[in-house]
Amino acid sequence: MIRKSIIKRNINASKIHHVIGHNGSVFFKLVFKYILILAILILIFLWLNNYVQWEYMSLTFAAVGLILFVKFCIDFLNIYLDALVLTESGIVLYLREWLLEYKTEIFDWERIETISHNQKWFWDKLFLRWDIMIRLEHGIEFPFEDITYPKKQAAKISQLKDRFVLDQSDVLSDNDWNSKKFDVLVEALWEVVKDYIDKWEKKEDDFDGDFDYGWENDY
Question: What DSSP element (H or E) covers 121?
């Protein structure tokens, strides 16, 4: 997928599990907007052509039409590349801006509290699109508008979050177990050292008691 490969080059993620993009209906508005602009441009050209005799008029309007087409392509890509990216470490909100500019917001899994979705008006119901809301700790919210199948997408997010929490629990359990084993080992070593010290002190006491200094027999 073109979108996934482009996003992967721009974000720092070892693995991308899923990419959530906009609903296809968002492109209808964009296409309608540029068709309307193009129609107005053609009407202006036809009107001027009847009253103004200018050698470079056709060339000028063709250049304007080409610029309009390039602008349409850029706007199309900016919408197409906007996405919620589900990675191993969390969610990346990737927003494309203009031609080569973009910005990202990174949400670690442990910071995400809830995922909700809602529809704002009639057109959302007509085109089966919803806005998804990511709620973080301290009541911080980040919306991502116009997506399809919000329940399915929210389920994927929750599934990855639960897996991350489970993996973290396993890591903590392993760390606790390793810590306990280390404590047991230290305790066992201390017992060995203590027994050795006790035996050494006992030998010294026995040696002092049994030693005959020799001068007692002279008296």
Answer: none
Q: Where are the domains of the chain?
A: 2-149
In this predicted structure, what is the pLDDT of residue 189? Answer: 67
The verdict on pTM exceeding 0.70 is no
Question: Are the C-beta atoms of 116 and 98 separated by less than 8 Å?
Answer: no
pLDDT (0 to 100) of residue 71? 93
Sheet architecture: strand order including 130-136 = 112-118, 130-136, 141-147
Per residue in 36-64, pLDDT tens? 999 999 999 888 888 877 778 889 889 99
Three-state secondary structure call for residue 147 = strand
The Cα 112–Cα 109 span in angstroms is 5
Q: What's the angle, vertex CA 159, arms to CA 156 and CA 162, rounded to 5? A: 150
Closest Cα partner for 96 from 1, 5, 14, 3?
Answer: 3
* Buried b / exposed e along 7-23 (16+ C-beta atoms within 10 A): bbeeeebeebebbbbbb
Query: How far is Cα 180 from Cα 170, in angstroms, rounded to an integer?
Result: 15
Q: Indicate whether 70 pLDDT > 80.
A: yes
pLDDT band at 216 (very low <50, low <70, confident <90, very high): very low
- Cα gap 124→117, rounded to integer Å: 12
